[in-house]
Amino acid sequence: MDQLIYAIEVVLNGLMTGVMYALVALGFVLIFKASGVFNYAQGVLALFAAMTLVGIQQGQVPFAHMINATFGTHLETFGWSVPSFLAILLTAVVMVLLAFLIEKLVLQHLVGQEPIILFMATIGLAYFLEGLGDVMWGADIKRLDVGLPQGISDSIEIATDKWFGYGFFIDRLDIWATAIAALLVAALVAFAQYTKQGRAMRAVADDHQAALSVGISLRFIWVMVWSIAGFVALVAGIMWGTKSGVQFSLSLIALKALPVLMLGGFTSIPGAIVGGLIIGVGEKLFEFLIGPMIGGATENWFAYVLALIFLVFRPQGLFGERIIERV
Amino acid sequence: MFYREAGDFKTSYRSDGQTFPIKLDRWGYYAVLVVAFGIIPFIINDYWASAVLVPFLIYAIAALGLNILTGYAGQVSLGTGGFMAVGAYAVYKLMTAFPDVSIVIHIVLAGGVTAIVGMLFGLPSLRIKGFYLAVATLAAQFFLVWLFNKVPWFYNYSASGQINSPERTVLGWAVTGPATSAPAKYLICLCFAFVLAWVARNLTRGMLGRKWMAIRDMDIAAEIIGVNPLTAKLSAFAISSFFIGIAGALLFSVYLGAAEVGEAFGINKSFLVLFMIIIGGLGSIFGSFAGAAFMVLLPVMLKNLLVGSLGWPTDLSAHFELMIVGALIVFFLIVEPHGLARLWALTKEKLRLWPFPH
Amino acid sequence: MLDSPDQENLLEVNNIEVIYNHVILVLKGVSLSVPKGGITALLGGNGAGKTTTLKAISNLLASERGEVTKGSILYHGKPISDANPAALVKTGVIQVMEGRHCFEHLTVEENLLTGAYTRSDGSAAIKRDLEMVYDYFPRLRERRKSQAGYTSGGEQQMVAMGRALMSRPETILLDEPSMGLAPQLVEQIFEIVKAVNEGEGVTFLLAEQNTNVALRYAHYGYILENGRVVMDGPAASLRENPDVKEFYLGMSDEGRKSFRDVRSYRRRKRWLA
Amino acid sequence: DLVVPNLSYRTGAYGANGTQYADGFNDYFALLNERDGGIGGEIIQVPECETAYNTEKGIECYEETKDTGALVYNPLSTGITYQLIPKVSVDKKVLYTPGYGRTSAKNGKVFEWVFNAPANYWDGASVAIKYLLDENGGDLSGKKIALVYHNSAYGKEPIRTLEGLAEKHGYELSLVPVDAPGQEQKSQWLQIRRDKPDYVIMYGWGVMNQAAIQEASNIRFPMENFIGIWWSGSEVDVLPVGDKANGYKALTFNGVGMDYPIYDDIKTYLLDADKASQGGEHVGSALYSRGMYAAVVISEAIRTAQELSGVSAITAEQLRDGFENLEITPERLSEIGLPDFGPEIKMSCDNHGGSGMARLQQWDATAKQWNLITEFTEPDQDILAPLVEEDSAAYAKESGITPRDC
Amino acid sequence: MTQEQAQEGFTTADGRKIGGVLMDMRDITLRFGGVEAIKKISFDIRQGEIRAIIGPNGAGKSSMLNVISGFYNPQEGEVWFKGYRRGPMKPYEVARLGIARTFQNIALFDGMTVLDNIMTGRLNKMSSGIVKQAIWWGAAEREENENREQVEKIIDFLEIQNIRKTPVGRLPYGLKKRVELARALAAEPQLLLLDEPMAGMNVEEKEDMSRFILDVNDEFGTTIALIEHDMGVVMDISDRVVVMDYGRKIGDGTPHEVRNNKEVIDAYLGVAHD
Ligand SMILES: Nc1ncnc2c1ncn2[C@@H]1O[C@H](COP(=O)(O)OP(=O)(O)OP(=O)(O)O)[C@@H](O)[C@H]1O
Ligand SMILES: Nc1ncnc2c1ncn2[C@@H]1O[C@H](COP(=O)(O)OP(=O)(O)OP(=O)(O)O)[C@@H](O)[C@H]1O
Ligand SMILES: [Mg+2]
Ligand SMILES: [Mg+2]
């Protein structure tokens, strides 16, 4: 009986963790949908966004370390601190700028290349941004606080204690993440499906040349999509940064988003959420039920294996577009 | 004008099928072999062996392997690190279980073991394609690393889970273990790289290679003209893994000497080797070597430049190194998406026309 | 059939050279002028460079690693080689690409709507044009909700044409509109071209292999071989030219040759350019 | 000149930790050079080489520096250490791995060139249990202790020790592995919440530390009952968690804070003269102090070697003798300007690991500083000594080494 | 149909001998989800003939070819080949039976040279194992060269010697079609399926292509089924024609019969062609 109640708690937490993964996966989906680019840099984008946010919030001097090393100065901060809301806004602007630069310097020159080449380019981009983030804001671990609540939710604990005789642990941050993710997904789905730009975005994903030929500006679409993806990365960065600090490993959550992506389908926005939920529950439940028998720490690979099993039955993921096979 | 094929007539299909049909290329190739086997072993020192040449050769083997799978057969894999780990752990178990058998045999067997594992993880490729498959191969990566970390049998129950390669000799020369000299390390890797490159070349120029390329270019059409996708894909996985397994075995036994799976064979390895083949050129033997050379040399050179010559603090230069490597990768892809090999071929094509274009 | 109604040259291509991949020289000095409101045909064998010419005009070469290395392209007297393809569509030049290039995952209707991407004259007008396209191609109306990737070759060709019409262009560059279409439909497509040309004053530059039909509908024709223009003239006069008759229309002096009979004798006479 | 390369890492997943340690290491030698003109008249050169915590880069750095007259290596990475152990025995270089690396290297009979004083992973585990024994009046029977560990060679080290001690003291041990990098630990902490262990011991590194402390605070696990190994006890681990990290404890084998006379010199000679590594950003932090401590031990060994051999420009072999005869008394530490900064060290030919003493520190979130809360405590050598003996014998057998007579 | 019936044949107008039934499609129905692409169609292909399939766009012609080459499995109906009923088969198994084809949207292997593309046609004629190929010298090389000789014959036949070493991606459309034909021929098929082999060609090139098709039929005795929209070509070179319209068969017979079929004219030709 206890086991069952525990399992329920594990499932609930799995769902919420899944939402956190989905936040990262969403960025991947957007870019893939719009350009057929598998953007490996999405994780680093989240890290970069979070670093920038903290940097702006705390009034850090960008490139301080480099300037100090070259000129022997002692710059560190401007000595002011920016309110969270404004800082988020400014960071969003930086992300748009970044999207613009990425299009200008990278994507534009790779129109029409094979997907794997574009994928590689985004890995190059990931390296670059990782280095740039460190040079700009320093490699130390930063604390991110934009006022999101964190820690166990008392009301749920008390309520469940009353019902089950065991108080469930639900993190308040996760509840927030769920709400925000739901909002994001709804907005993005509406955008992709029902607007002209959304349709253009899907057209670009199918055939760059044809899109060009009907007058869709790849440049505009890409800047737009990368900006949105940058914003999604910022949201993911805020959530994960609040959870475990802003530092290099933040970029590695991309690896947790990949199975989500695979399971949900690379091109489906709702897929990212459903995939996230399945992966979250799956890995947590497996760790809870089977983990103890085989030594634990199974989550990293189990997520992938779970996604793999789904794929064998649906090679395009649960909600991915059917892979068109014709001759 | 200096580089031309005119006057190089072929009188048989056999001579038309040779690896370097142009005379100048052939001489260049012989020259490289002479330098590699005849000169470098006498002048190599520990630094060059450990920092540059040995990793270059080992990664070249891994890149050849991945290139067979990704470049020739079109199946993108991110499981390279995991498969290298299989090679490493296989050779470790073999070395410690049968100390009297030659290490060369162990390394080849380790490749064989990896081939079997590779085939197993290649099975989903029959259904799953493209990036879905690439991500799916990460399952192999993570699972294998977890397995080697978790099951003490693989690391002979050592307290920390590290594996150490004991000393083994070939023809009386130590090739593994601390006492190995730089030339010995270099030569054993060179021999493996040479033979494997030759095997790769043979496999890719014949029927098997064509089957792979057909699957890569258009799998449905390939199936309709008579390629059995099952055997084509699985053979690509097997042979690719064989190469990668050998690279993993060499990496552990000859180069590192000790390894911990998550650290030495993590996902970064998978990406590194993928980089090599893309920068070098997908579907090109030469490209595998060029890419490996590029990715091994670049950081060393950058480091020497930034820290050694410019005297920057190491952290700044490490960050800049990341930025430069990233930027260079993007730059190369923009200049020539088909890699160094294609760049080289284009240069030759231009040279042929030079100095009279068109 | 018709003389070009109006002599103002809308589009002028002056002596352009195109190189692919920095090494493959494909166009070796092509010059064309396309009169406003006319239908101009670009004829020539495989690999003659028709597609390349059209892509050079619509600036789509960059994504295939090709570039125009010499010469100039003027539209309304202004050079357009630097405009990006999207801007070009806004100025009124749209290309229907060879090999259809539909957006596979979009439905037929969504494909058509992307054609209207650059328009800003409101959804009512777009809706009207959508109906117009459906009237031209009733088959598309039936399949409006199917994914374009699963429609047949001919249906895809109709989608591509319809999509171009949706942008309300001034000039359409048509690359092999008849390829893979049933004979009835070929006629139909050219009838539509004619109707659009006459009714809406749209200028056409079309590359065609089907010389027979093309010369029946076009006002003026250029024949391209091996990257050079080897002959040009009003369509009517081209149709009477004996070389054109033999090589492009498949007629010998005695009338149409049977495909069964040409088999045994080798004939190949090339214009020496 | 004497060359002591600093194989550091300032980028990558562990860069934030590596930076501080490397600064401390650099600064102490810089101080000796500036203030005393080096050691025994020899300037100490500390060429830095970035390893990014990557074993291959570690080898590259080693090979790059080894022919420049390098005496001793301190790579701050267990992986690189394992790689270097066989190499240093051939190249005859000293490998000094305080508080990390291969535990059984304590046995100088087998590991002639490796030193890991003052304490190793097993010592740490034992000292933690000792502390818990003291807290519980010497009796841990029936208590539940969970080990949250980095699922790698490093994290697995203490398992055997804790199991041995569990038998002896009757507590119940549960193992909770966390895969690298470890920023997602929900499963682990839900399990801990369900199992309600009395104490949690953590062997973590990098982001895993903060994530664990954060999750612990989320489930309201009492911080006082949460003890990290010394690699889980730096400012970067607790600062991101904020106030809720208050009371968290960690082991350490070096002093913390800036209340030592040496900092006056560091200020005069380095900070004011703008010679501090990285501009002195991290002076006084826990990892900085540990890096500095490693430099102290190395410089003392150099001094000893100079005395023994009578030459100032010592070789690596002489430095090894210096290490084997090294004695750092409390008096000596005070002389250096670091009173009570580390345990007493006395090494010998067969003991390369010192006494294994360590102490506990506790985080004060309001003051944002660590406070020492115990004296140096000795580990339970009854349990540890046989383990060291066993493990080093296995290594000797595997590598064909005949242990030296000492 | 019995074995004997399958052996019967007839003689065409220009005196060529057409053999018994080689391929027999019986009541084939093919559905994609709700779309019925082929509705209960039956027809046969006889040994040595050139059989044309025509019909408006979307009629299901390509789908029919896909059924024959095993890429689609029909929901209903039977496929008989050489007097045996063929169960559901993988495409590569069908290829081994001696059926080769070309594709409507060219399906060449873009990354390979013309020569390599054509060599893939001989896949099923080559058998040396992995080890032999890895060593190359000896068996594998010999086999390669033998097959190369056969391929060179086809290259000569189709007059594409000068582009042997060119990557196919760079070729113009018409040549690609020719290379595709070469690849199909390299397999030495009994039945050759051509899906719009002359689309996108001008008259001159169509003449060339027609000549190749007729020569193949003549010299190798290969049975050919082809889809084509150019009625001139169809009328001139085919022996019998099947007409499809939205999945149904609306006509079957000699070119002459078909051309004068009212239904065919309405559905497909528009005006009667001369
Ligand atoms: N991307 C490319 N890279 C290299 N060469 C190319 C490329 N595209 C076309 N070519 C070459 O340019 C020449 C002209 O090709 P183009 O496609 O313009 O001919 P076309 O007249 O349209 O022929 P078709 O009627 O077959 O479509 C051909 O020889 C072709 O091989
Ligand atoms: N894989 C598929 N999934 C769904 N529908 C399909 C598929 N393949 C073909 N169809 C549909 O079946 C019908 C017949 O298609 P098919 O390609 O056979 O036509 P076709 O006769 O070859 O036409 P065309 O002359 O235009 O090539 C079309 O309406 C097409 O949309
Ligand atoms: Mg064309
Ligand atoms: Mg068709």
TrEMBL record, chain A:
The lineage of its organism: Bacteria, Pseudomonadati, Pseudomonadota, Alphaproteobacteria, Rhodobacterales. It holds the Pfam family BPD_transp_2. Keywords: Amino-acid transport, Cell membrane, Membrane, Transmembrane, Transmembrane helix, Transport. It is a multi-pass membrane protein. The chain crosses the membrane at residues 6-30, 37-58, 78-102, 109-129, 175-195, 216-240, 260-281, 288-313. Signal peptide: none annotated. GO terms for biological process: amino acid transport. GO terms for molecular function: transmembrane transporter activity. It comes from Paracoccus seriniphilus. Belongs to the binding-protein-dependent transport system permease family. LivHM subfamily. It comes from the Bacteria. The keyword Membrane applies. This is Amino acid/amide ABC transporter membrane protein 1, HAAT family. It is found in: Cell membrane. PANTHER family: ABC TRANSPORTER PERMEASE PROTEIN (PTHR11795:SF451), BRANCHED-CHAIN AMINO ACID TRANSPORT SYSTEM PERMEASE PROTEIN LIVH (PTHR11795). Coiled coil: none annotated. GO terms for cellular component: plasma membrane.
UniProtKB/TrEMBL annotation, chain B:
GO terms for molecular function: branched-chain amino acid transmembrane transporter activity. It is a multi-pass membrane protein. It is found in: Cell membrane. CDD domains: TM_PBP1_LivM_like (cd06581). The chain crosses the membrane at residues 27-44, 50-69, 76-95, 101-123, 130-148, 236-259, 271-302, 322-345. One of its GO terms (cellular component) is plasma membrane. Keywords: Cell membrane, Membrane, Transmembrane, Transmembrane helix. The keyword Membrane applies. This is Amino acid/amide ABC transporter membrane protein 2, HAAT family.
From TrEMBL, chain C:
SUPFAM superfamilies: P-loop containing nucleoside triphosphate hydrolases. It comes from the Bacteria. Keywords: Amino-acid transport, ATP-binding, Nucleotide-binding, Transport. CDD domains: ABC_TM1139_LivF_branched. One of its GO terms (biological process) is L-amino acid transport. Residues 11-251 form the ABC transporter domain. PROSITE patterns: ABC_TRANSPORTER_2 (PS50893). Coiled coil: none annotated. The keyword tRNA-binding does not apply. The keyword ATP-binding applies. SMART domains: AAA. One of its GO terms (molecular function) is ATP binding. Belongs to the ABC transporter superfamily. This is Amino acid/amide ABC transporter ATP-binding protein 2, HAAT family.
Automatic annotation (TrEMBL), chain E:
One of its GO terms (molecular function) is ATP binding. Residues 23-271 form the ABC transporter domain. SUPFAM superfamilies: P-loop containing nucleoside triphosphate hydrolases. Keywords: ATP-binding, Nucleotide-binding, Transport. One of its GO terms (cellular component) is plasma membrane. PANTHER family: ABC TRANSPORTER ATP-BINDING PROTEIN (PTHR45772:SF1), CONSERVED COMPONENT OF ABC TRANSPORTER FOR NATURAL AMINO ACIDS-RELATED (PTHR45772). This is Amino acid/amide ABC transporter ATP-binding protein 1, HAAT family.
